[in-house]
Amino acid sequence: MESVADRPPDWGLCLSRNRRTRPTTPDWANEIRSLRKTLNLSQVELGKRLNVSAMTCSRWERGMQAPPTDCYLELARLAGPSRGWYFWTMAGLRKTDVQIMTGQMKGTKDPRIADVIAALEGQAALSEAQSRRIATSLSSLPTVALRREYKAMSDTDAQWAKLMRQQAEVLREIYSRRRCQLGTK
Question: How many CA atoms lie within 13 A of 25 on its CB side?
């Protein structure tokens, strides 16, 4: 008769134990969960605000799937100006671009800049329209992200070309202001 010490280890048992250990969740997953709990929202309610299912919110919070850019922008709007920078950064919005542009244009009457300045100074929460306007005018998001965000628009070539021209003009303005600030032409 074999003793217990003579038996080979039960590898099936070892593997099942390893499967039960939890992998670390990404920072963005923890931030989304923290924001949802801070706002006292269920996953269903958060999903309705972001136009996604509760299952999708659950996948985000468990770190199984990353949110798309437009959802990061909406999460930033929900988080407000103090916590919104994390989500804006995840969406591709660069804080330095916004700060350079708003710092140099503080006296301007441009509504895009006024919205950003108000959000930066905590004077106003961003509406959905303001969030999208800021995203298109001040970010350096890739074309694919912008196209996804504006999927609700009728998708004609003329409208898309106009949107891309506007984006290019704003980016040109940002980079020219950055060059002026650095002292190069």
Answer: 17
- Which runs of consecutive H residues, i.e. helices, occur in the chain? 11-20, 27-38, 43-50, 54-62, 69-91, 95-104, 111-120, 128-138, 143-149, 157-182
Cα 122 to Cα 38, 74, 82, 115: the distances in Å are: 18, 17, 7, 10
Q: Which two tokens stand for residue 167?
A: 């984006």
Q: Are 71 and 32 in contact (CB under 8 A)?
A: no
What's the rounded Cα separation, in Å, for the pair 167 and 56?
A: 30
pTM of the model: 0.47
Q: What are phi and psi of 115, to 5 degrees?
A: -60, -45
Q: How far is CA 107 from the centre of its chain?
A: 28
The residue among 173, 78, 10 whose CA lies nearest residue 67 is 78
- Which distant-in-sequence residues (6+ apart) come within 8 Å of 163 by Cβ? 136, 146, 150, 153
b/e code 111-127 from CB counts within 10 Å (16+ = b) = ebbbbbbbbbeeeeebe
Predicted local confidence at residue 54, as pLDDT? 92
Instruction: Look at residue 28 in the predicted model and tell me its pLDDT.
Output: 87
